Structures are given as structure tokens and as C-alpha cells.
Amino acid sequence: MKDLRTLLLGSAAGLVAVTAGHTADLPVKAKPIEYVKICSLYGAGFYYMPGTDLCIKIGGWVRIAAGYGVNGNETAIQLNKNLNDRTTSNEVLRVRGYITADVRNQTEYGAVRGYIAVGILTNDVGLQVASLVDSANRAFVQWAGMTAGLSQSFYDYYSTAAVQYHGSAMPASDTGDSGWWVWAYTTQFGGGFSGTISSEARRTTQIINQIAAGATAGTATTGTVVPGNYVSAVAGGAALFPGNGAYGGMQSADIVGNLRVDQAWGGAQIMGAAHEVNANYYSAAVPGSGHPGDVWGWAAGFGFKLNTPFIAQGDFFQTQFNVTKGALRYLFFGTNFNEGIQKGANESYGVLSDCVYGGTIAGANNTGCQLTSAWGFNAGYDHYWVPKWHTSIFGAYYQARYGTSANAMLCGLEGNAVGAAFGAAAVAGAGCNNNWSTWGIGSRTQWDISERFYLGAEVLYQNLHSATLNGVGTIAGPLVYGGATSNAANENNLMISVRAHRDFLP
């Protein structure tokens, strides 16, 4: 009996052990772990950073491009130092990529946002030595109507990137691609109406100081009339970008304002900018020589966009008109250089500057800063043939104009003056006229293969209507460019490019 009880108890214990072992092998439904918590406050792509109330979105894009007729560089192309000789690289290959981070959270006064975009840019003209450039075009904070940092100028309205691939191929005010330093406040009036006042990094071209050859030992012309170049004789000035000729140090940021409306039909904007033009000294390296008085230049513009879904869904027309006196980079932002193109013995050029001055106080022939005038417009239309295929057509026309005194001093620098050629006494030679204009037209066709991947091609034509040296068309003085002998009235360039673009997230 004892043996029977022992057997039964042992069997029961074994059964319990076996049952327990099988039970341990059964799947147990664990509590789900949420590794990433979606943040739906600010749109798609945001998630909460663990342990915080911060919402973050990581994005970016990569772009591959190839172009022909771009004069060796897709950033400053076509009419910048375009010699069209055996040294000119007509074809260029380019890769560009950015990583973006967008972080937001709520405060008692509304959402605060921080945004940054950093990346790389390479160009290769077939020398197997690609130029690698670190790049950053956004780094700003937004809060309660404030925008501060590297963003986009609040003067801008017309978007070159919306209709064309090469925003720097023709003049425009658009700073969207490179970014611009701002500290702005925007107020919403309701109904899509808003207004902004902004303090922004000054937009400079060059100032040209006409210094008489040999007038003072060691002096030289500040600024330049040579096509495609900016040169400064001010100590350290040659290292500054963009070339700013005889500008003094920044004493005041540019003041920019706009009134804007954005609605379902499109939008419109009026804008203006005040820009201090403060030249350096009459003698390039001699503070005791005095300087012209500071003057304020200005720029004003009007932009308009019309959505046209009654033609095709996604279609739109946009335009912007600009006028300036002494603040030309509000018109020539991407094309911020003396334009110049040579074909054979023929040369066309255009000098870009905010003001021209010259003379000396001692010689009683000094001038003030003679501000340069300019005006122009951009226009573009994008049409969808089908939802994934669309074609744009775009164009621009701009001209720069010099007053009588400024033109005479430039003519003196160019070696084509008669009589006295210095400061207030400068006289332009017959036929010397530094007014010039440029225009262009182009078209882009794009296949949106998916929401974040497209292929496209663009063709663009640009014409430079040259300034003139004299009535007989010969080239003289420093304007002899790449061996040219004749001053052509018009030169042109044709560019073709292709692009592949992939977005990660916007």
C-alpha cells in the first residue's frame, strides 16, 4: 500500500511538472510597446522625441543634374566670365543633397519651431576633381509671428524654383534656394491677409570708386568694370563674397516690409526695401582722404499669382515686377556680377553696381554716391498635361541705367573718355554708354513619377544687350576681355539640362 501511494504521488508530481513545462511554452500576449509615438499636431511625418513634448520630423532630398551650355558652373552660369573658347567647360555634372530637421512644441503663446537644412554640393567639369562644398540654406526659429535666422527674404514673392531649374540663370529677387538672414515679425489680419516688417542682411552688389591713375601713390580703382569680375582694392575686400567693391562696413541692416494676401485663387504682394549705401574712402587705403556721404537706396515690387484649375488642375501663373535705385541685388540676386560674354572677337558686357563715385576733396572734384537705377520683371506659367506630366514656360527682362555723372566716370575707367576724366570733371567719350539690359526665356518639362521622385529637362535662352564703348564698336582699356576686339550689341547663350530629384520628406 505504501508503495502504491508512493507511485501515485510520484506520478502526480511528474504530471504537474510536464503540464507546467507545456504551459511555459504557450505564447503569452505581452503588453504592446510604443517605440515611436506619432505627433499629429503639425502634419505628416512628425513624432514625439521620447520623454519630451517636442515633435520632430527628419527629411531631406538628393538631386542629380547635368547641363550643357552652363559655362562650367550651374550656380553662376551663362553670362559670367563666358569666354566661349577652348578653356570653357560647356558641360557640367552636379550632385546636391540636404538633410532637414523640423522641431516644434507648444508654449503658452503658441507653437515654437526650429528648422535647419544642411547638405553638400559638388560640381565636376570632367577634371576628376569635383568641388565639394558644405552647404546650409536654412537655420531659423519661428514663434508668435517672429521669424529669425537663415530663412528667406520677405521681399521675395516670385518663386523661380516653381517653374525653372536654374534660378540664377536670369535676374530675380528670389533668395529661396540659398537662404537669407532675417529677423522679422508677421501679423495676420484675417481672411488670408498679412503684413511683415523685417530687418535683413544687406543685399550688396559692388560700389565703384573711380580713382585717377597715378593721382595718389598706391591708389587703385575700387570695384571693377571688367566683365564677370568683382575686385576690391580695399584691404581684405577681395576676399569678401559677394564682391562688394568700395562698400564700407555694415552700419544698418536692410529694412524690408510687405503686405500680402494668400487665398484659394492665388495671392498677391506689395513689398519694399530700404538699403544703406555707405561707400568707403575717396582714396582706397587712406582714411584721411574723406568719403562720400551715406545715402539710402531702395527697391519696390509687386507680385501676383493666379491658380487656373479651370484650364487644368495644378496650373498657375506667377509674376513679379521690381524697380530700384541703389539696391540692385533686390533684382539681380543670383546674377550678382558684372555680366560678360565673348564669342570670337565680339564681346558684350554690363557693369552691375549700386553706385559710382570719384574725385578727391583736395582736388575739389569729388562726387557723392551716384546711385544706379534698374527695373525688370519675371513671369512664368506651369501647365499640367496629365496629373504626372507638366510643362512650364518662363521669362525675364531686366535693365540697368547709369546717370550722366556715373556714366562719365565709368567711361573714364574704361579708357574711353575725352577731356577731364576724374570725379565731377569726368566727361564720357562719344558713344560711351554703360546702360545695358538682359532677357531670357525658357521651358521645363517634368515627369512626377511618384509623390517624391521626379525626372525633368529644361532648355533656356538668354540674351545680353551690351553697354557700348564708342560709336565704332572697338574695345579699349580694361574691357578687353579674352582677346576680344569688337563691342557687340548683343550676345546670347543656349543651355540644356536634365535633372533627377528624390525627396525623403519635405
Task: Report what the structure shows.
The protein is mainly beta. It has a single domain, classed as Porin (Beta Barrel). Helices cover 7% and strands 45% of the residues. Strands 2-3-4-5-6-7-8-10-11-12-13-18-19-20-21-23 form a 16-stranded antiparallel β-barrel. Strand 3 and strand 4 form a beta hairpin. The longest helix is centred in the N-terminal third of the chain and has 24 residues. It is globular, with a radius of gyration of 31 Å. It starts with a helix and ends with a strand. About 7% of the residues have low confidence.
| Helical run tally | 2
User: Approximately what portion of the residues adopt beta-strand conformation?
Assistant: 35-45%
Model regions low in confidence, pLDDT < 50 over at least 5 residues: 11-24, 213-219, 231-244
- Largest sheet, spatial ordering of strands: 2-3-4-5-6-7-8-10-11-12-13-18-19-20-21-23
State the helicity in percent bands.
Answer: under 10%
Mean pLDDT score, rounded?
85
CATH topology: Porin
Total number of distinct structural domains: 1
Order of H and E elements: HEEEEEEEEEEEEEEEEEEEHEEEE
**Oligomer state of the chains in this structure:** single chain
- Number of beta strands: 23
State the major sheet.
16 strands, antiparallel, barrel
User: Per the principal axes of the C-alpha atoms, what is the gross shape?
Assistant: globular
CATH evolutionary superfamily: Porin
Structural class: mainly beta
- Tell me the distance between the termini: 83 Å
CATH class category name: Mainly Beta
Cα gyration radius (Å)? 31 Å
Named CATH architecture: Beta Barrel
